[in-house]
Specification:
The protein has twelve helices and nine strands. It is of the alpha/beta class. The protein folds into three domains: 1-48, no CATH class; 49-98, no CATH class; 104-300, P-loop containing nucleotide triphosphate hydrolases (Rossmann fold). Strands 5-6-4-7-8-3-9 form a seven-stranded parallel beta sheet, sandwiched between helices. The chain has a two-stranded antiparallel sheet with strand order 1-2. The termini are far apart. 25% of the residues are buried.
Length: 302
């Protein structure tokens, strides 16, 4: 019954906490969460695999006669290494990048304008407030992507008075309602600007006239504050590796490709992508991120 199931779950948890380092892959992530109450506190223990490679291999790849995986974001920085290691794919797996039918160089541009500040600087939010109106002035349908809700709302609050009814954030209403409102404004001939965070960088489809400009305010780097990600970074460091280049940059590359992919949804779409994070041209890893994007025509201000 339920008691037996809970006992088995506890057994698995304690076994995972006692498990030593794995021969090849990282050990399980283990962490505790303390919750304080008025009359006491609870401490809850957790354990989770850091990677699903061994599970996928034993449950899927080793049993399947054959499998085909397709996606626009299987590569990271143009390579399949991350996919093969994290998904536990056999060494005999074959990989291929199929050329797109999109004429990227004719359909869109990726632009990196001059910025006086970097994202880590105190004045970056103020710089966005000053820069964005000029960027969206010539387009009817714009998506502005942020990496933090707090910054998104700060920019929106600063601009809403000068641009009433123009800006809609993804938190204003349900996702479906936000997109319907945006499309309705475009259909009526009015400009519309969407503000969104991560879920709008990968989960929306606005073809044709419903989107002609994607503005990326900041490169989508994750912070390893999640216990599982932190455990993976610790394991990579222990092997003498560089977690930033081996984990953070490839993960950011996938997210950036997904964000840029919001622009061209059909073979007749056109538009532009603007990246306001100058690290993409000022840092060594920036060139890797740029080269992993579709081959849009580049316009980079020095």
């Amino acid at each position: 019954g339920s008691f037996h199931s809970r006992a088995e779950e506890q057994l698995r948890l304690w076994a995972a906490w006692c498990e030593g380092a794995a021969e090849k892959g990282p050990p399980p992530a283990r962490w505790a969460v303390r919750q304080r109450w008025e009359h006491g506190e609870d401490i809850t223990l957790y354990s989770s695999p850091v990677l699903a490679d061994s599970l996928l291999y034993s449950r899927l790849w080793s049993r399947a006669y054959g499998a085909v995986l397709t996606s626009a974001t299987l590569t990271a920085l143009g390579r399949f290494d991350r996919l093969q290691s994290r998904a536990g794919l056999p060494s005999s797996s074959r990989f291929v990048v199929v050329p797109s039918s999109f004429r990227y160089g004719e359909m869109a541009t990726v632009e990196v304008p001059a910025m006086d500040v970097m994202p880590a600087d105190d004045g970056f939010t103020e710089a966005l407030i000053k820069k964005l109106p000029a960027l969206w002035a010539s387009e009817k349908a714009v998506l502005v992507l942020f990496t933090a809700r707090r910054q998104m709302h700060s920019v929106r609050d600063a601009l809403a008075g000068d641009y009433p009814d123009l800006i809609t954030t993804q938190d204003d209403m349900s996702k479906g309602e936000v997109l319907r409102k945006h499309c309705q404004r475009v259909d009526e001939g009015h400009p519309s600007v969407l503000f969104g965070v991560a879920s709008f960088a990968e989960g929306i489809d606005l073809p044709g006239r419903y989107l002609d400009h994607v503005i990326i305010t900041r490169l989508p780097f994750s912070v390893p504050d999640d216990p599982i990600e932190a455990s993976l970074a610790e394991w990579v460091t222990g092997r003498g590796g560089n977690p930033f280049m081996e984990i953070t940059v490839p993960d950011a590359s996938i997210r950036l490709v997904q964000a840029v992919g919001r622009l061209l949804r059909t073979e007749s779409d056109t538009g532009r992508v603007t990246i306001l994070d100058r690290r993409i041209v000022a840092r060594r890893y920036g060139q890797l991120l740029l080269d992993a994007l579709p081959p849009f025509r580049r316009i980079i201000e020095r």
